[in-house]
Amino acid sequence: MEPKVICIIMGGGRGSRLYPLTKERCKPAVPIAGRYRLVDIPISNCLNSGFNKIFILSQFNTASLHRHIQMSYKFDPFNGGFVDILSAEQTNKGESWYQGTADAVRQNLHHFGSENDDDLFVILSGDQLYRMDLRDIIAHHQKVRADVTVAATPVPYTEVSGLGVMRVLDDYSIAEFVEKPKDPTVVNSLLISERLRRGLKRLKGGDGYCLASMGIYVFKGHVIREALSQYPDSTDFGKEIIPALLRKKALYSYIFDDYWEDIGTVRAFFEANLMLTDENPEFNLFDEKFPIYSRARHLPPTSFVNCSLDRVMTSTGCQMSGAILKRCLIGVRSMIGAGTKMENVFMMGADHFDDQQRRTRLGTEIAIGIGKNCNITNAIIDKNARIGNNVTLSPEGKPDQFEANGVYIRDGVLCVLKGAIIPDGTIIAPNA
Prior knowledge:
By secondary structure, the protein is α/β, with parallel strands linked by helices. The chain has helices at residues 40-48, 63-72, 101-108, 134-143, 184-188, 194-197, 221-230, 237-245, 266-275, 356-362; strands at 5-11, 31-32, 36-37, 53-58, 82-87, 120-125, 128-130, 148-156, 164-168, 174-179, 209-220, 251-255, 260-262, 303-305, 308-314, 319-321, 324-330, 335-336, 341-347, 369-370, 375-381, 386-387, 392-393, 403-404, 407-410, 413-416, 421-422, 427-428. It has two domains: 5-275, Spore Coat Polysaccharide Biosynthesis Protein SpsA, Chain A (Alpha-Beta Complex); 303-428, Hexapeptide repeat proteins (UDP N-Acetylglucosamine Acyltransferase, domain 1, 3 Solenoid). 19% of the residues lie in helices and 30% in strands. The strands form six sheets. Strands 1, 4, 5, 6, 8, 9, 10, 11 and 12 form a nine-stranded mixed β-sheet that branches. The termini are far apart.
């Protein structure tokens, strides 16, 4: 009999390195690709793999995430599927919030409805961009008779100092696991073996690659229950539970040889989104066999009038007139005025169409969207932002921690806050 597969998505991330995009929402709720949220990626991976029993563990700034899940994922009563949100809660056993990934699972074990030793727990991150058929990692897990399988991806050795890195033997068993290695000698000892290197398509030459943990795990049911009980003070899977189980349980690696981006910083988020406008993007949204699911919206088609577009991806419900856009990703209900020029911009769009009543309530005549004759480069414009006419925005020449009137600069990217109002004639640019 096939084991029961329980998918658990870690959605409690504060996302401090993605601030100010996480000022009013948790990291998994951050919009991506114009019409999705980050959490849609792991949920879609589960559903496309045939697994529809999904738990999301949430904690910080959860309202936006909860609203999105409730409006997006509704199953008929006959297939037994669900996407269930489990927020940190006070109980008779404790009053603390989730202290880490392992602690979050420990606090919710009684909710998962699993007491069978053969059940499989699939632990997924809620803030990564990748497409994986989870049936493959589960088949590998069963083939090698693993107690725990850790998904890993090849990463240049120069980029592993912030990751969990493992030394994997030729039979895929994990011989060593080091969290955020800094010592070059240690890093050299973790390089991928020649046998495992063969056939990996994403290696770009040279020998300097290590296998980094993706934060994706498959546990046997009895193993995860035993580990969480045996190590009650261990709060994180990657930092504590996995190293503690090394040489005590059968730990194996599953090598994922495809596009994967850990959305850890504003710059990484910015580049991952604009990459989608490439002619042949590494992450392909147009794969009918493995779609990305999200909330269904009943919006009109986008309207373009006398516009110039180069490497632009737009969502539905947008209106543009006389705009000049280059390498831009435009979210739902985006409004862009005549004469506005934008380059390297991710505009998240709006939650609703604007009207005079809303503007009166806010005390402004600036509509949601971007006004006329603006010039915006290298920027992320969060939802419901209102940018007036003749506005110039660029991070060039400004310090990296710049903040002024709803505009932040992080990692060399200018960010306009959600709901910010940028007055007519505002100039944030070199020499301004």
